[in-house]
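Hi, here's the filled form for the chain we discussed.

Project: internal
Contact: R.S.
Residues: 168
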Amino acid sequence: AFGSVAVEAAVLDGELVVERDTGASDFSALQHDLSEGRYDRFVFYAFDLLYLDGYSLLNVSLLKRKHLLESLLPDDSGKLRYSAHFNEDGGLVLNHACRLSLEGVVSKQRDSKYVSGRNGEWIKSKCSQRQEFVIGGYVPSTAMKNAIGSLAMGYYEDDALKHVGRVG
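And the returned structure, exactly as it came back:
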C-alpha cells in the first residue's frame, strides 16, 4: 500500500489497526493477528506527515501537513487511509465517536507544529471511563475457611483515600 504513494520519501505518523465488521478498530484482534503472523486484515490510518521528499514538515502547521497528507493518499479506502480531521466542537466529536464504539479522539491545535511524544499541543480523550482503585482491605469469606469474601476498594482524592465499596 505504501508503494502506491507517489513520493520519493516520506515519514507518516499513523496507526496500524484491525477493524471489526462495524469499522471500529479492535486492539485484541490486532494483537492476535500479529502473534499469528497474519497481516491480511491490517489497515494503516495516516494522520500526520512529518517529512516529504527532502523537506522536514515538523515546523509546518497541522492543517498544512494534513492537507499535504490527504493529497498524497489514494481515495480508494484500501489498506492505507487518511484520518480526517473535524473542525467541530471537541465534545461533540467525542460524543459521536463514543456512540460509534470508537476508542476516542485526539484533539490538536490547528496551527500547532509537530512535537514527538505526549508533550505537544494535543489531548487524547477516551470513550471508556476508567478509574484506578486501591485495595484497602478485605472481608473474610463466610462460606469458606481461610478465603476472601470481598475486597474493600477506594481511590485517592486530594491525598485522601475515599472508600467506594466492596467487590466479591
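Let me know if anything looks off before we file it.
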